[in-house]
Amino acid sequence: MKHKIIQLPKVIDERGNLSFIESANHIPFKIARVYWIYDVPGGEIRGSHAFKDQEEFIIALSGSFDVVLHDGQEEHKISLNRSYYGVFVPKMTWRRLENFSTNSLCLVISSTDYNEDDYIWEFDWFINEKQK
Ligand code: TYD
Q1: How many Å apart are CA 30 and CA 87, to the nearest integer?
Q2: Got the DSSP string for 21-71?
Q3: What is the mean predicted confidence (pLDDT) over 53-65?
Q4: Which protein residues touch ligand 1 with a CB less than 6 Å away?
Q5: Share of the chain above pLDDT 90, in %
Q6: pLDDT averaged over the chain?
Q7: Which of 98, 101, 86 is nearest to 39 (CA)?
Q8: Which of 96, 95, 94, 100 is nearest to 81 (CA)?
Q9: Mean of pLDDT values over 6-12
Q10: Ligand 1 atom 4: residue of nearest CA
Q11: Which residue, 37, 86, 40, 83, is CA-closest to 61?
Q12: What is the b/e burial string over 25-49, where b = at least 16 CB atoms within 10 angstroms of the residue's CB?
């Protein structure tokens, strides 16, 4: 599977807009866990690893940041800056989060519980696995 931008429903209302996610209808996996990254100091980078099994959907709930993905062949940079769309990241994708704006809020919806054994920390090992 390839990474993809997924647009979410947007209920426009003069009292304030509303968006939502249903795992059965909007993202290609069942939600197991939700976490968020916030208070990121300027210039910091999060991630820089891949997951063997975990799939995720990443949204900029507030502010902006870049999601840099490597699928084993090429790198793609996706800038997120709205709360009504996000990027689906398939398993076995190297990913890095960078260029966070002040007060940005990064929501990550994950297909698995936290499992440190699922992380791949070595880029060369990752590329090797992708070439098998
Ligand atoms: P990590 O996934 O390495 O963060 P990033 O890839 O954004 O740099 O997680 C950082 C720390 O937080 C690590 O010690 C594990 C812990 N953690 C949890 O306990 N539960 C979670 O769901 C996540 C995502 C991380």
Answers
A1: 16
A2: --TTTTSSS---EEEEE--PPTT--EEEEEESS--EEEEEEES-EEEEEE-
A3: 98
A4: 33, 35, 37, 46-47, 49, 114
A5: 98
A6: 97
A7: 101
A8: 100
A9: 98
A10: 47
A11: 83
A12: ebbebeeeeeeebeebeeeeeebee
How many C-beta neighbours within 10 Å does residue 130 have? 15
Residue nearest to atom 25 of ligand 1 (CA): 114
Q: Return the CA Rg of the chain.
A: 15
Contact of 75 with 68, CB cutoff 8 Å: yes
Kindly tell me if the per-residue pLDDT of 75 is higher than 90: yes
> Domains (ranges, CATH) in the chain?
4-8+27-117 (2.60.120.10)
Cβ–Cβ < 8 Å for 67, 78:
yes
Which of 31, 33, 34, 35 to probe ligand 1 with, by most ligand atoms within 8 A of CB?
A: 35
**pLDDT for 1 beyond 90:** no
Query: 80 with 66: CB under 8 angstroms?
Result: yes
Residues in the chain: 132
